[in-house]
Amino acid sequence: xxxxxxxxxxxxxxxxxxxxxxxxxxxxxxxxxxxxxxxxxxxxxxxxxxxxxxxxxxxxxxxxxxxxxxxxxxxxxxxxxxxxxxxxxxxxxxxxxxxxxxxxxxxxxxxxxxxxxxxxxxxxxxxxxxxxxxxxxxxxxxxxxxxxxxxxxxxxxxxxxxxxxxxxxxxxxxxxxxxxxxxxxxxxxxxxxxxxxxxxxxxxxxxxxxxxxxxxxxxxxxxxxxxxxxxxxxxxxxxxxxxxxxxxxxxxxxxxxxxxxxxxxxxxxxxxxxxxxxxxxxxxxxxxxxxxxxxxxxxxxxxxxxxxxxxxxxxxxxxxxxxxxxxxxxxxxxxxxxxxxxxxxxxxxxxxxxxxxxxxxxxxxxxxxxxxxxxxxxxxxxxxxxxxxxxxxxxxxxxxxxxxxxxxxxxxxxxxxxxxxxxxxxxxxxxxxxxxxxxxxxxxxxxxxxxxxxxxxxxxxxxxxxxxxxxxxxxxxxxxxxxxxxxxxxxxxxxxxxxxxxxxxxxxxxxxxxxxxxxxxxxxxxxxxxxxxxxxxxxxxxxxxxxxxxxxxxxxxxxxxxxxxxxxxxxxxxxxxxxxxxxxxxxxxxxxxxxxxxxxxx
Length: 602
Fold this sequence. Notes:
Helices cover 37% and strands 14% of the residues. The longest helix is centred in the first third of the chain and has 17 residues, at 19-35. The chain folds into two domains: 5-183 and 218-397, no CATH class; 421-595, IlvD/EDD C-terminal domain-like (Glucose Oxidase, domain 1), CATH 3.50.30.80. The model has no long low-confidence stretch (mean pLDDT 93). The strands form four sheets. Strands 9-10-14-13-12-11-15-16 form an eight-stranded mixed beta sheet. The protein has helices at residues 5-17, 19-35, 44-51, 58-63, 88-98, 114-117, 126-141, 158-168, 188-199, 205-215, 227-237, 253-268, 279-282, 285-298, 304-314, 321-330, 345-350, 353-363, 455-463, 480-483, 492-500, 584-589, and strands at residues 68-73, 102-108, 148-152, 174-177, 372-373, 376-377, 384-389, 392-397, 421-426, 429-434, 444-452, 471-475, 505-509, 522-527, 544-548, 553-556. By secondary structure, it is of the alpha/beta class. The protein contains 22 helices and 16 strands.
């Protein structure tokens, strides 16, 4: 199949734009490969420190002739998605030992849950936790004693942070091992309705909590298609998971078998063997282009418009939002998973899942087929599904047709002809919108602005009955420099109520929305942010705004509005408490959202 012309052109532009930085990165990785793991060159004291607690593996490590696998884990048992990782190190050590190698936990990285911190001060640490995780992964691998690494992480900032960290050690192979989604509980649409009833004062907090606990009820990733599950999709599209492994439930024999195989695969890809596949060769320009295609085809999380840029820059690859916008116009939406539809990721996986989708996109030339992956040369490997048989774990061709066309469709009969995300430009700057869940009648909103400097102010105005007509709610001073760019997902219930009353409603913000961004049109990640004096800082109550997701524009229509002085805000409340004071350096040095909102340079 001939490669789609838009995909080819965008990829070529990325290659040319990144030539200098990518070349410099690869030269560093080749130099690091030449030096190799340093354990054989450590002093006797250094080696004794490294092997002291390794029990039956101590002598093998001292001999230094066998492959050694580093485990970087984001385990904690407060995150349901990461709780299964508690048992992974023992499983991995045993598997690698049987294969003739050794494995050690190189280190742990922090992992926070945006679902817990939504609307709370801790959410202001969330985005910065990504770069903290990257640095922690760097510390974990800094002993330079490993031939390959496996990374245990799933959720919102954890996978991007681990990918950034992995690329700092891009001369060694990396395999990402997921934990899988929890089994289906209370339907996501029913949960959303109950949240709206609570926001409207129609049910008690006890009733709300009962519903939430019925939805989030066991180990594994949340089952809606938010940032965590978008991360899992990316790891297959970009070749860092084993095929078909993303959405296998925790605690099952197949999940354990995939973990074992992933560990052995990582070690087999090291420079000690004949199939050397360092992560710097997996995550190239084509892999990132494939990741963007996957994001569009699935209607994935808006957070990845930030994370993919930061991830790519860690490997010397420079993406921009125009790349996303152009690919969105070329890539059809093939999946309807909540909040884009009623199904959850378990239903999606049962309908044929990522394997079917990758097969469809390959057939239509919408993916680069010739990428290197941890499964072997070529993305065709990712059309396969894992199975357990008498012979153990095997991979077979996946389904050639959707098993539920309400959830998953072929490329020639998509849910819509373009992707789920769109770039907006205009006199208010640049922003992005997730349109895959927004009904067509809501994709263009022209209405007066109501301006707030935090989401609590907006909720107070709603409860006071002040938002009675058509309105575009502007929540500013929520960018990365102002307060770490928190998600503003707690705005969703009351905005949904307003829309349900028949009002025209939209949101404009320099903050983020959750990966669960839904039916409310939301222009998010507005750049320049208000703290930088961007046009969003010049909006006043009553100004007429127009958000047009069809044409891709975001504008203020009030004459002379942009000639005003930019508003300022008292940000002192964002500086202290719940650990915020520890991240003042990040707020001072962070890049803008369209550059990945990272504290790292290219």
